[in-house]
Design brief:
The protein is α/β, with parallel strands linked by helices. It has twelve helices and ten strands. The protein has a seven-stranded mixed β-sheet. The protein has a three-stranded antiparallel β-sheet with strand order 1-10-4, with no helix packed on it. α1 (22-31) crosses α2 and α5 (175-184) packs across α11. The radius of gyration is 20 Å and the shape is globular. The structure holds adenosine monophosphate and manganese (II) ion (MN) (3 copies).
Length: 380
């Protein structure tokens, strides 16, 4: 069974390592019945305005009941709706409006570990935020070129240029972009496998990077009128004690929220994070971390905040976007009967890079492994 939430506060577009443009991701959000979507690309906010404009346009079409207004179409032929919590499946157009929230996902370094901190609800034109984005851009470009040099030595053709061409103008090129390129070129069984073989610490295309400190990010996001959110705390592979230390530092530096619910997450992990969230008196956020089409990570997918937590959208900063405690999460429970094959995923990824698609490697591992069952992936 799959649950689709009408609010998702973490996703990526072609402004960083996502495969869909901001306009396309917004269209997908309407298709899946979302009412609130935060665009949180890595270290920049270049996709936000396009997303907001696309939603404004679609909302106007819905309010006019125009024939070309976006439809909900997450109900594929292969899907069956089991139930809907807090609402009905066939909603009137007025209940299908989408609000795009400005967001960002900053990379930071804490005790030599790479930690991601999302910013939500901030003014993306705030001078200090723009400054921080600019300095990250310089660091990211340097690193992306260093990774490309390694990949070229390993036989990949023009990796940096091809990633730039597949992303939007001015995008940040992350390891996520390279992982998709490696997969597209048929040199790995999946995006995850590309990380294992090439991009992780200790692998041949890894480049060590020192990002800025967490407190700087919290300060800038807060000053820009936003809320700092500790992203996917369960994915750092930390011991309980180390994670508590991280959350404690995050909170003492002014961080206000943490992600409790993510797409590829076991219920036990969500409950564990819910406990920590409550203990440290943080606001609870939720986000799919959607990057590209796949079975286990999609907009709104598998996101469910326990009712006893205080959702992040009740904070003061969210009020600017019409959100308050009155907003209730709606969940549609669906089953899909057919799984996508890894080979079709590889073909779709290859098409994005105008690839050099290889015949040398048949993506032949089991679908579950290639696509990543819930909990099987360590993504940052
Ligand atoms: P970077 O910020 O350049 O180090 O790249 C990190 C990005 O790579 C993350 O945001 C994910 O999108 C992606 N990523 C990290 N680990 C994995 C993995 N094991 N499999 C697939 N993608 C990953
Ligand atoms: Mn990413
Ligand atoms: Mn992310
Ligand atoms: Mn992340």
């Amino acid at each position: 069974m799959t649950t689709i939430s009408n609010i998702d506060l973490h996703c990526h577009t072609t402004a960083s390592d996502g495969s869909l443009s901001p306009t396309a991701i917004v269209a997908r959000a309407y298709g899946r019945g979302l009412n609130v979507l935060a665009i949180t690309d890595h270290d920049l906010v270049a996709g936000v305005e396009e997303g907001i404009r696309a939603a404004e346009k679609c909302n106007a079409l819905l309010l006019a009941h125009a024939p070309d207004a976006p439809r909900e179409h997450y109900l594929k032929d292969t899907a069956e709706v089991l139930s809907v919590d807090n609402g009905v499946l066939d909603r009137p157009d007025e209940e299908r409006l989408l609000t795009v929230i400005p967001g960002v996902e900053f990379s930071t370094t804490w005790n030599d570990e790479q930690i991601h901190v999302a910013g939500l609800f901030m003014d993306i034109n705030h001078p200090r935020l723009q400054q921080l984005v600019q300095s990250r851009r310089v660091a990211r470009t340097e690193r992306a070129l260093a990774i490309a040099a390694k990949l070229e030595r390993l036989g990949f053709e023009r990796p940096y240029e091809r990633c730039v061409a597949a992303a939007q103008e001015g995008a940040t090129i992350t390891r996520g972009n390279y992982a998709r390129l490696i997969f597209a070129d048929g040199k790995a069984k999946s995006v995850d496998d590309a990380f294992h073989q090439y991009l992780r610490r200790g692998q041949p295309a890894y480049v060590q990077t020192k990002w800025g400190p967490i407190d700087e990010v919290i300060e800038v996001v807060t000053e820009a009128g936003g809320v700092a959110v500790l992203a996917h705390p369960r994915r750092y592979n930390f011991s309980n004690q180390r994670l508590r230390r991280l959350i404690n530092d995050f909170k003492s530096w002014g961080g206000q929220a943490m992600e409790v619910s993510s797409a590829q997450q076991k219920p036990t992990d969500r409950d564990y994070l819910a406990n920590l969230c409550q203990q440290y008196e943080l606001l609870a956020s939720l986000g799919s971390d959607f990057h590209s089409e796949g079975m286990y990570r999609d907009l709104g997918q598998n996101l469910d905040l326990p009712a006893h937590l205080t959702p992040v959208w009740t904070c003061e900063a969210a009020a600017k976007f019409g959100l308050s405690g009155d907003f209730k999460q709606r969940l549609v429970h669906v089953t899909y009967h057919k799984e996508e094959s890894p080979a079709s995923q590889q073909a779709a990824t290859a098409a994005q890079f105008g690839a050099i698609s290889s015949t040398s490697h048949q993506a032949s591992s089991t679908p579950a492994k290639a696509l990543g069952r819930p909990g099987s992936i360590v993504h940052l």
